[in-house]
Design goal:
alpha/beta; seven-stranded mixed sheet; 4 helices; 7 strands
C-alpha cells in the first residue's frame, strides 16, 4: 500500500491576494493540475483523502475525492508551520493500519516528511528532491507499516 503526499496545486499570487492566506484559492492552472491528479492517482486503491485546512489544499484534492466517492477530511496537522511529530504520527497510523491515503499539504511540510521517512528506513528512489506545486511523493509501505520507498512524481501539468 502507499501514502501519496500531494503538494497543493498552483494558487493565486500570495502578494496580490487580499484575504486571509488560508482562504487563497487555486488559480486556473492549479485547477488543471487538480483535475490531472484524478488520472494520476485515481487508479490507486485510495481509501482516504486528507487535506490541510487551507482552501488551496482542499481544492487540490476535491476532484480526486469526488471521483473516488470520498469526502475530503480536513486535517490540521497538514497545515503550514508543521508540527512534524503530529504529521508523522498521522502517517504512521495510516501505514500501520494499511490504509492507502492521499494527504495534501504545503511546501514546508512535505520535505520534512520525506526526510523523516527516509530516516525511518525508506529509500528515496529519485534524483529529483523537489516539491513543486501539484507534485506527489508516493511512500510505499510494507508489512508492519514499515516505510519502504519514497518516489517523486512531478506535477502532471
Amino acid at each position: 500500500m502507499a501514502l501519496h503526499l500531494v503538494r497543493h496545486a498552483k494558487a493565486g499570487d500570495r502578494r496580490r491576494w487580499q484575504g486571509p492566506d488560508d482562504r487563497r484559492p487555486l488559480s486556473p492552472a492549479g485547477h488543471r493540475q487538480a483535475d490531472a491528479l484524478v488520472d494520476l492517482l485515481g487508479p490507486s486503491p485510495i481509501e482516504r483523502v486528507l487535506s490541510s485546512p487551507f482552501l488551496r489544499c482542499v481544492q487540490t484534492v476535491e476532484p480526486l475525492a469526488d471521483k473516488l466517492g470520498l469526502a475530503v477530511e480536513v486535517e490540521p496537522a497538514l497545515g503550514e508551520g508543521p508540527d512534524i511529530a503530529a504529521v508523522l504520527a498521522l502517517l504512521e497510523g495510516l501505514a500501520t493500519s494499511g490504509t492507502e491515503a492521499v494527504l495534501c499539504s504545503h511546501g514546508d511540510v512535505i520535505p520534512l516528511v520525506v526526510a523523516a521517512v527516509e530516516r525511518r528506513g525508506a529509500t528515496v528512489v529519485t534524483s529529483d528532491w523537489s516539491v513543486r506545486k501539484g507534485s506527489v511523493w508516493t511512500v510505499e509501505v510494507g508489512a508492519g507499516g514499515r516505510f519502504l520507498t519514497a518516489t517523486y512524481v512531478p506535477p502532471p501539468v
